[in-house]
Design a protein that fits this description.
The chain is an all-beta fold. Helix content is 0%, strand content 38%. The chain is built from no helices and 28 strands. The chain has a 5-stranded mixed sheet with strand order 24-28-27-26-25, with no helix packed on it. The chain has a 3-stranded antiparallel sheet with strand order 4-7-8, with no helix packed on it. A hairpin with a 2-residue loop joins β25 and β26.
Length: 248
């Protein structure tokens, strides 16, 4: 039977002159299932010690070994590591933009900017990790586009838009005093650190020609009675609140 049959069918009674021999050749039968997205053009089976080239599927890059050596079965020395390429920037990076062409491989650096009207207070260079994951990230903040409408009678000669973190000077309209901050810092939109307070001035300079009715003895303004005093060529109108107006 050792001459005509297989070794599995050889019996103890076989002629010792024709011993049943068992093959000792070791083969690798394929790549391990754990090597996700790894590929090879090698036709299996391959014998122990055979070197096999490994690549990654489209959209993936190999950060491991590109050549592996058969040990047995699906065991090899070394191994590849197929990492998904970065194919875009995350949607969570609101108003962030890039001119980079995707797909890009892991560890690749790209530049990121912000849409018009926004400034980047984060990182302008980010590094691909995998898919939509990057090291570092930008932060696109809305530029300050003007002063808040609630800052009544506040003024600035600053030209908008201005970027987050920019400090600007603020004054008050004629006839108003600033009892708050004269320098404010842009945060975003119309939000600032600090704020001015433009209150009514203690002194008004008003031309007599602009007055319709004025009594040198008394004056009613918004229900507040005031006394009028003539001093030389000027008229001082003194209000009950303690404020006064010089009529020139």
């Amino acid at each position: 039977c050792c001459l005509t049959g297989s070794c599995d069918t050889c019996k103890d009674s076989c002629d010792s002159s024709y011993p049943c021999t068992v093959s000792t050749t070791v083969y690798c039968t394929g790549l391990p299932d754990t090597w996700t997205n790894a590929e090879t053009t090698t036709s299996f089976s391959v014998t122990k010690g055979t070197t096999v080239s490994v690549t990654c599927a489209d959209g993936y890059s190999n950060t491991g070994d590109s050549t592996v050596t058969c040990v047995s079965g699906t065991t090899f020395t070394n191994e590849p590591n197929c990492v998904k390429d970065c194919y875009a920037i995350p949607d969570s990076w609101t108003n962030a933009e890039t001119t980079s062409t995707f797909n890009i491989t892991t560890t690749t650096e790209i530049n990121v900017t912000c849409a018009d009207g926004y400034s980047n207070t984060g990182n302008s260079t980010v590094t691909c990790v995998s898919g939509l994951d990057y090291l570092n990230e930008p932060n696109c903040t809305l530029d300050c586009s003007g002063l808040p409408s609630s800052w009544t009678n506040a003024e600035t000669n600053t030209t908008f838009n201005i970027t987050s973190g920019t400090a600007i000077n603020v004054t008050c309209a004629d006839g108003y005093n600033n009892t708050g901050d004269s320098t404010v810092t842009c945060i975003t939109g119309t939000t600032y650190l600090n704020e001015p307070t433009c209150g009514t001035s203690d002194v008004w300079l008003v031309s007599v020609a602009t007055l319709v009715v004025v009594s040198l003895m008394s004056l009613s303004v918004a229900g507040v009675v005031a006394a009028a005093v003539v001093t030389g060529m000027a008229v001082a109108v003194i209000f009950q609140t303690g404020k006064y107006m010089l009529l020139t």
